[in-house]
Design goal:
globular; mainly alpha; 6 helices; 3-stranded antiparallel β-sheet
Length: about 150
């Protein structure tokens, strides 16, 4: 960049993007702190939520759904299994595939964590009207779609 070009922080799009990133980071930190008493991390909550909504999904599908590498899932699952929150079962049709399920303990912990998570969401979104909330959500979905990698 030369001195004649504008700097990124002079651009409203850049400033607004930084505001979105900071808000996202702040919410993630607040969620981590709120989940701490349940001995649960946000990434673990993501796993539990997805297995509740899609019981029997494979590790590969879970990684794709969470936008992480399979190695991330491979590291998270043993922690959740040791706590008897998740179980893996061999697929009846393809023994190479492991299907993932919540245990009763996993489902109970998830229900407690969802109360914490929803309380945080309500607190954060209380400053928005329903229309503003819908606008932000739709806009973030368009951004995610524009950056989607197949």
């Amino acid at each position: 960049m030369n001195k004649m070009q504008s700097l990124p922080w002079d651009n409203p799009r850049f400033r607004n993007w930084v505001a979105v990133a900071r808000a996202c980071h702040s919410v993630e930190r607040a969620l981590a702190a709120a989940l701490h008493p349940l001995d649960l991390k946000p990434a673990q909550l993501d796993v539990l939520m997805n297995l509740y909504r899609h019981p029997g999904m494979s590790q590969h599908d879970l990684a794709r759904k969470l936008l992480v590498g399979r190695s991330n899932i491979t590291m998270l699952l043993p922690q959740l299994e040791r706590r008897a929150l998740v179980r893996r079962e061999t697929d009846g049709k393809d023994r190479r595939v492991l299907r993932l399920y919540l245990t009763l303990s996993g489902e109970a912990l998830l229900m407690e964590a969802l109360k914490v998570h929803m309380a945080l969401i309500e607190k954060v979104m209380a400053a928005s009207t329903p229309a503003e909330c819908d606008f932000v959500g739709e806009h973030m979905r368009r951004i995610a779609e524009a950056l989607r990698i197949d």
